[in-house]
Amino acid sequence: MGRWEPDSRGRLETAALALFGERGFENTTVVEIAARAGLTERTFFRYFADKREVLFGGAGALRELLVGTVDGAPENADPLDVVVAAFEAAAAMLQERREFALRRQAVIAANTELREREVIKLALLAAAVADALRRRGVSETAASLIADTGIAIFSAAFAAWINETEHREFPLLIRESFDELRAVTAGATRP
Amino acid sequence: MGRWEPDSRGRLETAALALFGERGFENTTVVEIAARAGLTERTFFRYFADKREVLFGGAGALRELLVGTVDGAPENADPLDVVVAAFEAAAAMLQERREFALRRQAVIAANTELREREVIKLALLAAAVADALRRRGVSETAASLIADTGIAIFSAAFAAWINETEHREFPLLIRESFDELRAVTAGATRP
User: Fold this and answer.
1) The pLDDT of residue A32 is above 70
2) Domain final residue, candidates A33, A51, A69
3) What is the DSSP string of A133-146?
4) Same domain, yes or no, for B160 and B112?
5) What phi, psi does B96 have (nearest 5°)?
6) Range of the domain at A29
7) How confident is the model at residue B1 (pLDDT cuts 50, 70, 90)?
8) Is the pLDDT assigned to residue B2 strictly greater than 90?
9) Coil, strand or helix at A1
10) Residue A1 resides in a domain
11) Which of A83, A87, A138, A148 to mutate to probe the B interface, most B CBs <10 Å?
């Protein structure tokens, strides 16, 4: 990552997403991505294991942020509040890269295998959050339930954010989605 | 499905799960499953497209039951109540096949690809339930949020059911999981 390759990663990402959008994920090669970015194939592999990692390489940072937020929350904080705060932090991170997120989402939506990979990514994030909750003393079942609920809130807010036309920011939409869930569960009449 | 093959499907399922448990899913062939069941390979393929379908062939019936319950609920019923009722119905169906469900779960837990397939199955069920809610007039975002919340309740209850030592039945555990979610969301203090 010397000076002679300013933001190689960013250029590779931009080139990859442009090509995925133009000709489809499956019809794009690493050679083409590198060429479009004005870099070598070798440089590509310094940043990404394969072309799919351009789309999914961010999962590690997302997991660290989620787990770090849960781990760092005050001891007596309500577990669902903690999880929502973690997803708000994740949403703020994604808000910084809205253009990337939108293009990435369009590529994923167009490809069954990538959609499945995204579903699995979210399930792994939920499992990591549930583990973090258990470390805080939350029971086995409640930890999964709360983490999965966090993912449900996040997914609904993400769908709203992707289609957002009024420039409302992702963390705000997380809050709205959470409020909606609270209203929905309070409204349910089952004894 | 003539008289000369009494419960061929059931025999194939039993044989397959026994073999998957003994030697692993990946090390079991269709020929072996058919032989263990005392049937031909050709009979196997009359019931299942491949060995994976022994584990996932029930998804269609589950989806029909979930969607049918949502579609058939009273017009003014609370959407989350409707979804929970649908998962209670699904849980009652699975309760009838508890032995099969336990063995199946053990096989899936031991194989990454199968675990991923199970995650995707649940996501597809959630999408089908969300579509059914939209047909009832529930908004785009709320439908996904409520359906995903239903899956969260179902998954937590399933994990509890699989580990259940007091013979509590799956539908009851759905109810308990729902009550827990209500308590969790009511307890969250975020404004």
Assistant:
1) yes
2) A51
3) HHHTT--HHHHHHH
4) yes
5) -65, -20
6) 8-51
7) very low
8) no
9) coil
10) no
11) A148
Using a CB-CB cut-off of 8 Å, the residues of chain A touching B191 are none
Region A25-40 average pLDDT = 97
Q: Quote the ipTM score.
A: 0.88
**Shortest distance, CA B118 to any CA of chain A (angstroms):** 10
Mean pLDDT over each residue of chain B, to the nearest integer = 93
Residue type present at position A89: A
B1 in any annotated domain: no
Q: What is the DSSP code (8-state) at residue A149?
A: H
Predicted TM-score (pTM) of the model is 0.91
Sign of CA dihedral A182, A187, A190, A191: positive
Assign A191 a pLDDT band (cuts: 50, 70, 90): very low
**Is the CB of B184 less than 8 angstroms away from the CB of A145?**
yes
Q: Are B170 and B105 in contact (CB under 8 A)?
A: no
- B→A contacts (Cβ < 8 Å), by residue, are 78-81, 84, 116, 119-120, 123, 140-142, 144-146, 148-149, 151-153, 155-156, 159-160, 175, 177-178, 180-182, 184-190
CB A119 within 8 A of CB B120: yes
Is B188–A80 a contact, with Cβ atoms under 8 angstroms apart? yes
Is residue A36 domain-shared with residue A108, that is, in the same domain?
A: no
Q: Which chain A positions have a beta carbon within 8 Å of B144's beta carbon?
A: 152, 155-156, 159
DSSP chain B: --TTSTTHHHHHHHHHHHHHHHH-STT--HHHHHHHHTS-HHHHHHH-SSTHHHHHTTHHHHHHHHHHHHHHS-TTS-HHHHHHHHHHHHHHHHHTTHHHHHHHHHHHHT-HHHHHHHHHHHHHHHHHHHHHHHHTT--HHHHHHHHHHHHHHHHHHHHHHHT-SS---HHHHHHHHHHHHHHHHHH----
Q: What average pLDDT score do residues A145-159 get? A: 96
Residue labelled with tokens 């307890």: B187
Q: Is A26 exposed, middle or buried (0-12, 13-18, 19+ CB in 10 A)?
A: exposed
